[in-house]
Write a structure and sequence with these properties.
Elements: E1 3-6, E2 13-17, H1 22-34, H2 41-62, H3 72-82, H4 89-103, E3 104-109, H5 113-122, E4 126-131, H6 135-144, H7 147-150, E5 153-156, H8 157-160, H9 167-176, E6 184-188, H10 191-201, E7 204-207, H11 216-223
Parallel strand pairs: 1-4, 1-6, 4-5, 6-7
Antiparallel strand pairs: 2-3
């Protein structure tokens, strides 16, 4: 029986984002202003970058992971503090969701994703998702897509403190769901994270640079489909 570990964004779901422009940040500016924190879009954008990097540097200095993952909720809380305010975890989550909506230009399933998932499951294959993603925004999307019920297990980087290509992230998935490495194939669109991470962890991989449905025949063959 084969096991397929999928990346999520631009592997199963085609996504396009813009987090650099004024139009993307303006709704976030309004969110801060409504809570008494006066700012502008360039300042928010720049401070987001600063506090994201600072958090990653602090985590890397701890030495637990080669590729640590930041927590976007903590980043937004730090942004509020920098403006003389304070965001609870709940308010910071609202701010993150506001930003996610503003930054997202496209977020839709690739044509053929649903068909591929069904075909692989029909072979008896086990399906998992291992994604560099923030749970605060991605868990809801997974529920909406009904991926939570369709996949045998899902791990997101923000929940684990590390991200691909860190072999420890892969190990967390394999330990949690008791996956055998010899049966597993990683499927992803990014060579430096998905494919390099799979190689470092010691499992096979399939590069799906145009999305998982573009390599459907290869995956079904690996799964032993007739």
């Amino acid at each position: 029986m084969k096991t397929f570990v999928f990346d999520l964004y631009n592997t199963l779901v085609k996504t396009e984002t813009d987090y650099r422009s004024r139009s993307s940040w303006q709704p976030v500016v309004e969110f801060f202003r409504e809570r008494g924190l006066e700012t502008d879009w360039e300042s928010l954008r720049d401070w987001f970058d600063v506090f994201w990097r600072e958090q990653l540097d602090e985590l890397k200095a701890q030495g637990d992971f080669a590729y640590p993952e930041a927590d976007v909720i903590k980043v937004f809380q730090r942004m509020a503090e920098n403006l003389g305010g304070e965001f609870s975890a709940e308010t910071a989550e609202e701010a993150v969701l506001c930003a996610k909506r503003a930054f997202t230009l496209k977020n839709e399933l690739f044509d053929g994703t649903v068909k591929l998932i069904a075909a692989l499951k029909a072979t008896g294959a086990k399906l998992y998702i291992l994604s560099n993603a923030q749970a605060v925004t991605t868990r809801g999307e997974l529920d909406e897509l009904r991926f939570t019920e369709k996949f045998d297990g899902i791990l997101l980087s923000s929940e684990c403190g590390c991200k691909k290509p860190d072999p420890k992230f892969f190990k967390m998935l394999f330990d949690k769901y008791d996956i055998e490495k010899k049966t597993a194939v990683m499927v992803g669109d990014e060579l430096k994270t998905d494919i390099a991470g799979a190689k470092a962890f010691g499992i096979k991989s399939v590069w799906a640079k145009d999305g998982a449905p573009s390599v459907a025949q290869k995956l079904l063959k690996l799964a032993g489909a007739k």
